[in-house]
Design a protein that fits this description.
The strands form 4 sheets. The chain has a 6-stranded parallel sheet, with helices on both faces. A 4-stranded mixed sheet has the order 8-7-9-10. Strand 5, helix 7 and strand 6 form a beta-alpha-beta unit. It is α/β, with parallel strands linked by helices. The chain is globular and about 65 Å long. The protein folds into 3 domains: 166 residues, Rossmann fold (3-Layer(aba) Sandwich); 137 residues, no CATH class; 88 residues, Antifreeze-like/N-acetylneuraminic acid synthase C-terminal domain (Type Iii Antifreeze Protein Isoform Hplc 12), CATH 3.90.1210. Helix content is 37%, strand content 17%.
Length: 449
């Protein structure tokens, strides 16, 4: 509750937190919109493949032109403004920068950025959760060995879910289930960038007007992003994942404590202590009133009669037995909230979510029959979607992580609905991301649960 006060102290002392941002797209721009309004923060440098586009985004979010006139990082530090360029390595190597916000959305590049930051003793807030999903445990291990912190980004749903889980456990509640909401029907897993807008609820004209990326939005719709984010939550909290993918039970906010109970008690869970995603659509496509589509939730258990009586006395909405209660946030504000992670890491020495082990994985799964020679196009594309599986299951089958299923050639037939393995594709084994993933498998697979 005192982060803002600590930021004010840093500002008054002339010792702001010195931040470098890699990637100034939509998510990064949302964070940048808040930086001028946050005391004790100096955005020293921004690295982007297109500095011109980054500058246009800065103008769009309301930055004054004089804030981005620094000719170099040293000039930015001297004058208190921001340097914009395309050299991310200069950003992570500069000794004066305290923390890097990785915001590219490119999982392979994000691994390089995170590891280089650790090598240079920089803390990292990683917005690119796709990278965390396929090698987060090893990134956390590398950060710890370097004596720095690695963190998921507040505002994105995984960190918000981790926060709710931490609240519950710190208060003494057993966590029965935790997760996010989503608009889901089973056939959405076949969605492509050509079909996304109708399913998503926008016209092509609206999407074009907003400059919306169909592949990115399709990664949400086809279940890839919910699987990715559920993987990050599972690995950070130790909560288990469904044995054969997310179930997406439909429920209103009021019904979450009804459905997030074990099967033996009338719910959908295989057991207590799991991640799950709640759909905002009934099986027939009807929109559920008061849904949790854009929010996060945690279901806890009142283990004693006294605690259950307290639920009743304070009018907490529970399942019919009075045993299970759900706390929720109905919205998340994405990049507008990233500053909370920056402050938590730098002022409390605490990440807002970080992998503790390898419990879950996102395995590339065929949207259609694939034949030798087909080229996989990764998250949100035409060929594969991401299926959430227990890490032990993925390790046993040699599952191909979705984060590495981009521009990869298929070498043997794969049926629609089948999850791919390493043996199904011709991998580029020269990338650092591939090496990190394989190292993670070796390091953590024996402990995968």
């Amino acid at each position: 509750m005192n982060l803002h006060h600590k930021l004010q102290q840093r500002a008054a002392q002339g010792k702001p937190i010195r931040v470098g941002l890699i990637g100034a797209g939509k998510f990064g721009s949302m964070y940048l919109a808040q930086v001028p309004r946050t005391p004790g923060i100096h955005m020293v440098g921004i690295a982007d493949l297109s500095p011109e586009a980054a500058c246009r985004n800065l103008e769009r979010v309301g930055w004054e032109p004089q804030r981005v006139q620094a000719a170099s990082l040293d000039a930015a530090l001297r004058d208190g403004n921001t340097h914009v360029g395309d050299d991310w390595q200069a950003l992570v190597k500069h000794p004066a920068i305290d923390l890097i916000v990785e915001c590219t959305g490119n999982p392979v590049a994000a691994v390089d950025h995170c590891l280089a930051a650790f090598d240079n003793r920089k803390h990292v807030v990683n917005v690119t959760v796709e990278a965390d999903a396929f090698c987060g445990p090893l990134l956390a291990k590398e950060a710890a060995q370097a004596g720095v912190l690695y963190s998921l980004a507040f505002g994105d749903q995984p960190a918000l879910i981790c926060d709710l889980v931490d609240w519950a456990r710190t208060c003494g509640f057993p966590v029965v289930a935790a997760g996010r909401g989503h608009k889901w029907l089973p056939h959405f897993c076949e969605s492509t960038p050509e079909t996304v807008w109708g399913n998503y609820g926008l016209t092509p004209e609206q999407a074009e007007r907003g400059g919306l990326n169909p592949k990115m939005f399709n990664s949400f719709l086809d279940g890839s992003k919910p699987s990715i984010e559920s993987t990050a939550v599972s690995n950070a909290t130790g909560l288990a994942v469904p044995s054969n993918g997310l179930l997406y039970p439909p429920a209103s906010v009021e019904d979450i404590p009804f459905v997030t109970r074990p099967i033996s008690e009338g719910g959908v869970l295989e057991k207590k202590g799991m991640v799950e995603v709640i759909s905002s659509l009934e099986a027939n496509g009807r929109q559920i009133p008061y849904d949790i589509r854009m929010g996060v939730w945690v279901t806890v258990e009142g283990e004693t009669e006294y605690i259950r009586n307290c639920f009743e006395e304070y009018n907490a909405h529970t399942d019919p037995t009075g045993r299970y209660f759900t706390l929720y946030k109905r919205w998340h504000l994405i990049g507008l909230e990233v500053g909370f992670s920056v402050a938590s890491v730098m002022l409390r020495g605490e990440p807002t979510g970080v992998a503790q082990g390898w419990n879950a994985d996102v395995v590339a799964t065929a949207k259609r029959d694939l034949k030798p020679g087909d080229l996989l196009d990764g998250e949100g594309g035409y060929t594969v979607w991401g299926k959430l599986l227990p890490a032990a299951t993925s390790a046993k089958m040699g599952g191909l992580p979705l984060g590495l299923a981009h521009q990869v050639k298929v070498v043997r037939p794969v049926k629609k609905g089948q999850s791919l393995s390493w043996d199904d594709v011709a991998m580029d084994t020269t990338t650092r991301a591939y090496a990190v993933r394989r190292e993670m498998e070796t390091t953590f697979s024996q402990h995968a649960s």
